[in-house]
Amino acid sequence: MIYYKDEKIIIRDMKEEDAGSIYEELTTQDCHPDLKTYQNYYIEQEKREKYVFIAEYEGNIAGYVTLIPNVLTGPFANQNIPEVNNLGVFIKYQKKGIGNKLLDVLEEVAANISDEISLAVGVHSGYGQAQRIYIKRGYLFDGSGVWYQGKQLEQYADCCNDDDLILYLSKKLNG
């Protein structure tokens, strides 16, 4: 399904062959992707466990984002509040409005599920652009503090500033 199309950008559902393209692009960006993750995205989409939105820019895959309709972990667990999960725009396509367009489409779909949407964002500087885009779009911290490896950290707890150190945010939809 195509959710959005203009002269340069298309936002659509994931195709099975997209997993390999995403993996290949991420390996050029000093990332350590796992091909199985992206293959599972397609499987989860087909089982309707997750929405997977793919952005194309001038015919090339430029990014992706997933939406989980009802998360099982974190402060929004089992509340039927959808979660933005793993927004990624490839470096060579950043600063072209692709991330915002992916989120526009995702939020429109999420609004059919709930009047609120949530997300978790990493704390380290590698997530700086994502942190900024979410705040600019009206997401607010939920107040539950820092989480690490799926657990809410106690005040002054030791942790590692890696990809598992996250903060949760949410946003009201439909008004």
Automatic annotation (TrEMBL):
CDD domains: NAT_SF. GO terms for molecular function: acyltransferase activity, transferring groups other than amino-acyl groups. SUPFAM superfamilies: Acyl-CoA N-acyltransferases (Nat) (SSF55729). InterPro entries: Acyl_CoA_acyltransferase, GNAT_dom. Residues 9-174 form the N-acetyltransferase domain. Signal peptide: none annotated. This is GNAT family N-acetyltransferase. It comes from Mobilitalea sibirica.
